[in-house]
Write a structure and sequence with these properties.
The structure holds two protein chains of two kinds.
Chain A (H helix, E strand, L loop, with lengths): L2 H13 L9 H18 L3 H24 L4 H22 L3 H6 L1 E3 L2 E2 H42 L14
Chain B lengths: L4 H11 L25 H4 L8 H17 L5 H11 L3 H24 L7 H16 L5 H9 L4 H76 L1 H72 L9 H17 L4 H9 L5 H52 L18
The chains are: A mainly alpha, B mainly alpha.
Family (chain B): Belongs to the TelA family.
Pfam families (chain B): TelA (PF05816)
Protein name (chain B): Toxic anion resistance protein
């Protein structure tokens, strides 16, 4: 390694703190637990809790697939950001409001804060489902490919059979 | 043996060099808006809806008839004059406060928004440049000569090992680039909300401008009429009422111009953010594409498996695919190896991929310089405008004994 690149590396290490590392699976799970704690602490209504739990379950199911998706993809970013940012932000925004006011006072057209939050959670849930489905589908492709390989190796030839029968 | 069509396509795609993404990324910095002339403001602002016109006319008529029925100089007359002085004060003040707050927006965008060096996006891009420079295959020209002279050996292995050590940093960078895009999008949503509020308040101001114009015409006619019969009354009317109507008209126009200026400034910030989102997106894709190329080149040159988190999907499928197909097509495997090792995919392709990242980052930098420039122009214009409306705020604060619910208060009317 040349001196220049060594210096460059040193410089890079010094600056590494400037860009925080990407959240790991542990961070994502911890973030989901924090959201759960928030809900319990804020005594959130069941409509919210059930939806958040559904999203959390989907994210937990998707986590092992993230490695296959690759960290750099937009899908895996969406999953990470949902757990660490979008979901806590949505739930926190609702829990910060006085409950009575949030559940009865329309803020967006005729929608109350509760309804607005439910809409957001529905959208997040649908998106997470879509990503999980896509990830599973990618995995299933491997199964199909393997099936084709086995077929090619051991299955009956697909062309005209030229194999001679056993010698009499 | 037949090969399923999809499978052979996939293996061909895995071996063929990746086409570089569109080379020319041009980010356009929007031009700074020209100063808005106060007299043109009513034409630019949201127009008074025709459905409201009768109601506004009725207000003017009501005021004129009330004025006609009171003796000039009486306490009732003074009250009438007062309602002209306080007409629309609340709306003007609110609009002035909004534009004052709005002035903070471009300043904030300049200081720590996406286009500034100190922003999260700026820092991340800087970090990306450093990391990429560290991985650049052409950085050390000597390395290439080594590759040429020596049989592929440790140098190549060493080079690709760098990728592995840069992984967590690259993960952090890619993550925070996307984070930055999220932040910019959130900013734009908030700015759009401000725009909506500003639009409503401009609509209201424009209604007051209409009322002021009508009052001006009607009062001028009445004063001209009175001048023949009662010159004293005409003078009082002109001094105590018409003067304030005209002053109010001027204030309204000024504030309307300031609001429009803020509105245009917000537009600039939004457009800048959109451009930056585009640039950051390109920075991530070119980076991932370079990593992808590196994986394939590593395989081709060193027959070395380079496993990168960022693209593990491609990595597992690609190498798995090559293995699987080579097993399946035993007779073709030699050819595949040969293809992989041929110069069709090599250091040149990797260099091209890196050149793409540099080009992207350079065009973002170029954009930032231009955007910073127009942004400071925008702020300059906005500052002078906002100063004008501050003068109004000061005057109103001095004259605070007002009757907020005067007869010319329009705050209950719809704005659009």
């Amino acid at each position: 390694m040349g001196l220049k690149s060594w210096l460059g590396r040193r410089r890079g290490e010094e600056q590494a703190a400037a860009v925080p590392p990407a959240p790991t699976e542990q961070d994502i799970l911890a973030a989901l637990n924090r959201v759960n704690a928030m809900l319990a602490e804020g005594n959130a209504p069941p409509v919210i809790t059930s939806r958040v739990q559904r999203i959390a379950r989907t994210i937990r199911d998707t986590l092992p697939q993230l490695r296959h998706l690759g960290v750099g993809t937009i899908e895996s970013y969406s999953v990470m950001a949902t757990a660490t940012d979008y979901l806590p932000e949505a739930v926190g925004g609702y829990l910060r409001l006085p409950r009575e006011w949030a559940d009865t006072r329309p803020i967006d057209g005729y929608k109350t804060s509760l309804m607005v939050l439910v809409d957001q959670l529905e959208l997040l849930a649908a998106t997470m489902d879509k990503i999980l489905d896509a990830a599973n589908r990618a995995d299933a492709q491997a199964l199909i490919a393997h099936g084709m390989f086995l077929q090619a190796k051991f299955g009956p030839p697909s062309g005209p059979d030229l194999t001679l029968g056993p010698t009499p | 043996m037949t090969t399923p069509a999809g499978e052979s396509d996939a293996s061909a795609a895995a071996v063929a060099p990746l086409a570089p993404p569109d080379a020319s990324l041009t980010l356009v910095a929007p031009a700074a808006p020209a100063p808005v002339v106060a007299t043109q403001a009513p034409k630019m602002a949201p127009q008074v809806p025709s459905a409201v016109l009768p109601e506004l006319d009725a207000k003017v008529e009501g005021f004129m008839s009330a004025l006609g029925s009171t003796a000039v100089g009486s306490p009732e007359f003074a009250q009438q004059a007062e309602s002209v002085r306080t007409m629309g004060d609340d709306d003007i003040r609110r609009a002035a406060e909004t534009s004052n707050r709005m002035l903070q927006q471009p300043v904030k965008a300049l200081k720590d928004g996406g286009i500034s060096e100190g922003s999260a996006v700026g820092k991340t891009l800087l970090e990306l440049r450093r990391t990429v420079e560290d991985l650049d295959p052409s950085q050390a020209a000597g390395a290439k000569r080594w590759l040429d002279l020596l049989p592929f050996g440790d140098k190549v292995t060493d080079y690709f090992r760098k990728y592995q050590s840069a992984q967590s940093q690259l993960n952090g960078i890619l993550h925070s680039l996307r984070n930055g895009q999220d932040e910019l999008t959130k900013d734009n949503v908030a700015l759009n909300l401000e725009k909506t509020n500003l639009w409503a308040s401009m609509g209201r101001l424009n209604q007051y401008v209409y009322v002021a114009e009508q009052l001006d015409t009607k009062l001028s006619a009445k004063i001209a009429e009175l001048e023949l019969t009662d010159p004293d009354a005409a003078r009082t009317l002109s001094q105590d009422v018409l003067f304030y109507v005209r002053q109010k008209h001027q204030d309204l126009l000024t504030q309307l111009a300031v609001s429009i200026q803020s509105y245009l400034a917000i537009d600039i910030i939004i457009k800048n953010n959109i451009e930056l989102i585009k640039g950051v997106d390109r920075a991530s894709t070119t980076t991932i594409s370079a990593l992808r190329t590196a994986v394939i080149v590593a395989q081709a040159l060193g027959n070395q498996k380079l496993v990168l988190d960022q693209i593990s999907a491609l990595n597992t499928t690609t190498s798995g695919m090559i293995e699987r197909t080579s097993e399946m097509l035993k007779d073709n495997s030699a050819q595949i190896q040969e293809q992989a090792a041929s110069s069709s995919i090599g250091i040149e392709q990797l260099q091209a991929a890196f050149a793409n990242i540099y080009a992207t980052m350079d065009s973002i930098d170029e954009f930032k310089i231009k955007a910073l420039d127009t942004m400071s122009q925008t702020i300059g214009v906005l500052e002078t405008e906002v100063d004008k409306s501050r003068a109004y705020l000061d005057r109103v604060q001095a004259h605070d004994a007002r009757n907020a619910a005067g007869t010319l208060d329009l705050s209950t009317l719809p704005t659009s």
